[in-house]
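User: Please fill in residues for this 180-position structure.
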């Protein structure tokens, strides 16, 4: 059984900041594998801008040849909002230790996550830096130098901020969506 870093999210769209997080995680000696877990629908959101199956496809295309990165369809296959605690419990059947990766922008609401007190006992958090948000010393961190967010990209598409493996396809999807 391996030790994994679980990197979940909407990835709506996936961008070079997400890739930078994964690259940083792969450099950590504690991590055997990064499991990328797109949500069907983020528990804190009411909609996605790209269908879950399409976001899953993009992530598989992006990380197709990346050693020690697994794109997992568990949450997408359930077809509903899935709290992180449920995914962690599921993955602990296969893996011995889970590092849970969150963006620094999630620190403020972390205690509101479903069964947070149970979750924090099951995982070790790794916080990806973002927007100069201060990260408490009791968290592991990974430094991410890409200043980009999916919400900004949805409004102002910049293909240079998209993974080259499917940049055209991603940009086209959001262009069409914004034209409707």
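Assistant: Residues filled in for all 180 positions:
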């Amino acid at each position: 059984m391996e030790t994994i870093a679980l990197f979940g999210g909407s990835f709506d769209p996936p961008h070079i900041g997400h890739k930078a997080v994964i690259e940083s995680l792969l450099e950590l000696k504690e991590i055997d594998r990064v499991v990328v877990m797109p949500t069907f629908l983020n528990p804190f959101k009411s909609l996605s801008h790209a269908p879950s199956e399409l976001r899953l496809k993009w992530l598989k295309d992006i990380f197709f040849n990346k050693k020690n990165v697994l794109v997992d369809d568990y949450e997408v296959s359930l077809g509903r909002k899935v709290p992180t605690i449920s995914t962690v419990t599921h993955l602990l059947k296969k893996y011995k230790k889970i590092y849970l990766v969150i963006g620094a922008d999630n620190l403020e609401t972390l205690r509101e996550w479903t069964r947070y007190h149970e979750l924090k006992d099951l995982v070790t958090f790794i916080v990806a830096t973002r927007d100069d948000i201060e990260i408490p010393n009791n968290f592991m961190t990974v430094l991410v130098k890409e200043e980009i967010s999916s919400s900004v990209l949805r409004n102002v598409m910049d293909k240079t901020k998209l993974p080259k493996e499917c940049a055209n396809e991603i940009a086209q999807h959001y262009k069409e969506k914004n034209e409707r």
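For context: Helices lie at 16-26, 52-62, 74-78, 84-91, 116-122, 150-155, 167-179.
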